[in-house]
Amino acid sequence: MTLSIEVAAAFAPGGVLSRAAEHFVPRSGQTEMALAVAHAIEGAYPLVVEASTGVGKTFSYLVPALLSGERVLLSTATKALQDQLFGRDLPRLVEALGLPVSTALLKGRASYLCLHRMETARHEANLPHGLSMRALARIEEWSHMTRTGDLAELPGLDERSPLIPLVTSTRENCLGAQCPRFRACHVNLARRQAMAADVVVVNHHLFFADLAVRESGVAELLPSVRIAIFDEAHQLNEIGVQFLGRNLTTGQMLDFSRDLLAAGLQLARGLADWQGIVAATGQAARGLRLCAGKQYPGTKLRWPVEGPEGLNAADWRLALGAVHASCVRACAALDLVSEIAPDLVRLHERGAELAERAESFVNACEPGCVRWVDVGTQLRLIESPLDISKAVKNKVLGAAGQTEKSWIFTSATLGDDDKLSWFTQPCGLADAQVLRVGSPFNYECQAALYVPQNFPKPGDPSHTAKVAESAVAWARQLGGRTMVLTTTLRALRAIGEALQAAFEHSGDLEILIQGNMPKRVLIERFREGNASGGKACVLVASASFWEGIDVPGDALQLVIIDKLPFPPPNDPLTEARSKLIEAQGRSAFNDYFLPEAAVALKQGAGRLIRRETDQGVLVVCDSRLVSMGYGRRLLRALPPMQRLPSEQELMDRLDSLTRTGTTTSP
After folding, report:
1. How confident is the model at residue 396, as a pLDDT?
2. Nearest to 452 by CA among 470, 465, 477
3. What SS3 class is residue 413?
4. C-alpha pair distances (Å), 307 with each of 116, 295, 301, 365
5. Contact indicator for 60, 34 with CB cutoff of 8 Å
6. How far apart are the C-alpha atoms of 554 and 543, rounded to whole Å?
7. How far is it, in rounded angstroms, from Cα 655 to Cα 666?
8. What is the spatial order of strands in the sheet that 558-561 belongs to?
9. What is the four-CA torsion angle of 543, 52, 54, 24, rounded to 10 degrees?
10. Integer angstrom CA distances of residue 280 from 13, 197, 324
């Protein structure tokens, strides 16, 4: 029996999935995708699948992969999705299919407790501001009970906690085989389990980090894997360019300084002027930061040739030279004492790498890359490739010595044309087979679209205030259950503050704003608040909240998007990509800005309808969607929703949703 026949039988009415998987309903789109994946596995070729919301793509790629009997690598966009895939979806299917399959979860170093660094932190006299020995003791108590060391298991630990860097390792500070706790290392245990498993679940960050520095263990795993599947593949290009370039940050310098002082005083006191060396390193890092002057947080400074725009080129070179010199001085001191302890050897390697990075930024930018400086509390010097096509062709699809593999890439949003060129071109997959599977949802009955005509233009300073004013009225009419998605952090703050001011005295609605608490907590609070009997909520968010958020049922029935999500034209990476397209004789607007906006708009709209029974309204507060010629292309990217011609019809629809609402789905 061929794999395709087995897969078709599994998805058929009365098949193994309908007998074993709870609430399974055969869907033609899901079976179509599953058969396409099966054919790609049998033929060992790359396949790109855009599977719209509701298709059930997870089962579509997992079933043929598991039934193939081959070793499989699964990669997801985030650690949360990774945990869901490993902890829920895989076990359910393995049990349903009755297969003797072993699975393993592999994350990056920052996800695992480092026993050596935890013990080192315990002996530090002064913990960073805001941290207590009690919090450290809680982690130490948990360390005696955990088998995996995965910090996601520790209840109540905020993923933003400044304690995490103190009890986890990085590639720079890991001691490797010289570590006194090497045998008990959770990272090494996870890697050993991954090497022995039939199915390994990783994330895109880990995959590309390994392509860049071959450090995470994926490089050893990949040659033995016959099937590689990338879910939420629309993030691959942007994640990939982060790792395939180079960077130097003042934060790296200050972390190096802190570790150098602690190790020097503890292991080699009196053998070098550690305080003087560390003071020089820290001063060099702060001097580089001061070169950028006062900038709005999040500012990106272009870096054409001599140095970042707006900065004195001579001062910049001098500051970079001071960073290099301070690292060289630290390495010279470490040279004399490195035999005393592995910690000092690793510090020497870190110092040498920082010196090399500083020197590389003095030299010219690599061809095909772009440089810029991110300005915030720390300074980030970045050199990035424009896309990942070269790396995918050379290091993934065409890697020497690898057997023929099946590469599967899937997401709900991969482009706005039949070739899915928004995704395939920058990812080096122009020759891959492409499949688009539509959603099973009846959007014309379940959802409506409203585009206000009387709003100020998006560039008008009063536009954001008008969005906030209208959001107050619409959210009040619906009784919460509203998500406002903004295209900028400035709009996020302005709209969030306006909504808080509108409801602070009445207390009718709770306003949740991105950044005020961890993302996971915000989403849980939003779901609970909009459930029956809870205090209704409005969530105002940007960036990562445009995708990957699943709030089914009546908890979310209104999504407001402040304006069309075009890429920021003054972003250095956007500028460089635009110039490259124009140099090729193409239109940057048609071939870059429009597809980017279409994909982002589709992702934002995808938050609204998550189940066959959901009802809701999408409001896009940007009249260009209906007044400009290119708006038709953007509208085609959206699901076929009913159009509401007036605000009165919008209010009537919101009122009907309030009257017909049911208990929120779990």
Report:
1. 81
2. 470
3. coil
4. 40, 16, 9, 11
5. yes
6. 23
7. 23
8. 510-513, 537-541, 482-485, 558-561, 616-620, 447-450, 642-644
9. -130
10. 71, 48, 11
414's CB contacts (< 8 A; 6+ apart) are 48, 50, 233, 234, 420, 422, 423, 424, 599
Residue given tokens 């820290």 in the structure block: 282
- What pLDDT shows up at residue 403? 57
The average pLDDT across 259-276 equals 92
Question: Which residue matches tokens 């919460």?
Answer: 480
Q: Which residues pair with 47 in a beta bridge?
A: 408, 433
Nearest to 192 by CA among 106, 100, 111, 115: 106
Q: What band does 132 get if pLDDT is binned at 50, 70 and 90?
A: low
State the chain's mean pLDDT as an integer: 90
Listed residue (538, 650, 558, 566) closest to 607, CA to CA: 558
Which pLDDT tens digit goes with each residue over 465-503?
Answer: 999 999 999 999 999 999 999 999 999 999 999 999 999
Q: Which 3 state secondary structure label does DSSP give 147? A: coil
State the DSSP code for 611.
S
Q: Does the pLDDT at position 79 exceed 70?
A: yes
Residue 409 near residue 423, CB atoms below 8 Å: yes
Helices 274-291, 250-267: axis angle to 10 degrees equals: 170
- According to DSSP H, which parts of 45-200 are helical? 57-67, 79-84, 90-97, 115-122, 133-143, 164-167, 186-196
Say if residues 55 and 440 touch (Cβ distance below 8 Å).
yes
Give the Cα separation of 513 and 519 in Å (integer): 10
Would you state the structure tokens that stand for residue 538, as one six-digit string? 């409005």
* 462 has a pLDDT exceeding 50: yes
**Rg of the Cα trace of the chain?**
26
Residue 316 is given by DSSP the state: H
548 neighbors 232 (Cβ within 8 angstroms) = yes
Give me the mean pLDDT over the 230-240 stretch.
95
Q: Report how far apart, in Å, the C-alpha atoms of 445 and of each of 608, 609, 614 are.
A: 13, 11, 10
Residues 6+ apart with CB under 8 A from 397: 46, 407, 428, 429
Residues 435-446 have pLDDT tens digits of 999 999 999 999
